[in-house]
Design a protein that fits this description.
Blueprint: E1 4-9, E2 14-20, E3 22-27, E4 30-34, E5 41-45, E6 48-53, E7 61-65, E8 68-73, E9 76-81, E10 84-85, H1 92-107, H2 112-137
Helix pairs in contact: 1-2
């Protein structure tokens, strides 16, 4: 199968830089699949699970990502996200605490800005919990 170059950059490190056969990114209106030689585009992503297949491997690699953007051009894909973690690296207890903290903050009277920041924290905690539970079940 043909391949393209993929680079996933988190705010503090380069998560992946190499060849890729398929990529599925979490978009605002569902998931978007990217195959080799896709037309040029820029896409906003949301918190969720990004999946990609490396040539020669039979299983997809999974990464839990925060919000970001994906650029596709000239058979190269660059994803810049605020966070990127392998599901096995997620501390489930810490993610549960973050979710509870976010739920409590939503119950408080907040400014609009604080409200949106709390919603983002809650979405990130839910994505991390969902990704870690997939890993534990071996899916």
């Amino acid at each position: 199968m043909a391949a393209f170059w993929l680079k996933i950059i988190a705010s503090d490190h380069v998560f992946y830089n190499g060849s890729c056969e398929t990529l599925v990114v979490p978009a605002h209106d569902g998931e978007l699949g990217i195959l080799p030689h896709r037309e040029a585009m820029i896409l906003a992503t949301q918190e969720g699970e990004m999946r990609f297949r490396v040539p020669g491997e039979s299983t997809e690699r999974r990464v839990i990502v925060g919000i970001g953007i994906v650029q596709v051009a000239n058979n190269r894909v660059m994803a810049v996200v605020d966070s990127a973690e392998r599901p096995e690296d997620i501390d489930e207890a810490r993610a549960k605490l973050a979710l509870e903290r976010a739920k409590e903050q939503l119950r408080q009277k907040q400014s609009i800005r604080e409200y949106y920041m709390t919603q983002a924290a809650m979405a990130r905690a839910l994505s991390r919990l969902h990704g870690s539970s997939y890993h534990e079940k071996g899916l």
